[in-house]
Amino acid sequence: xxxxxxxxxxxxxxxxxxxxxxxxxxxxxxxxxxxxxxxxxxxxxxxxxxxxxxxxxxxxxxxxxxxxxxxxxxxxxxxxxxxxxxxxxxxxxxxxxxxxxxxxxxxxxxxxxxxxxxxxxxxxxxxxxxxxxxxxxxxxxxxxxxxxxxxxxxxxxxxxxx
Length: 162
Description:
The chain has 1 helix and 13 strands. It is mainly β. It has a single domain, classed as Jelly Rolls, CATH 2.60.120.
């Protein structure tokens, strides 16, 4: 009888944990920057497949850098190659990483800071127009080349939850 009273609450909490876990990620990939010096010629690509064009998505850039990173922001170019297209569409972003007064916006441990920065506003989300394979290519367009103290860059795409 005692073992049932011990097992029953544990089983309830395990079932609760399993039922409450939902995977919202569609795609996430991170690429290491060689030598922690991001040359403008190094342009990581991220390829994924979209099957649901009716759902809104949220797009994020993930970035990891050292505390010695020289700037409070980063300028990036995001090239998007859609299914059936021969040329990519380009969009430039000025992503704020911190301020001199408040420090880094990301989460940090020791001298390494992680950022997950939304590229899509909090509004209705981003809709992919076509089903198929998309390729996003990220390049740094800062004045410093190579851009020092950047450890990795990534792309995260998730379905927007209602």
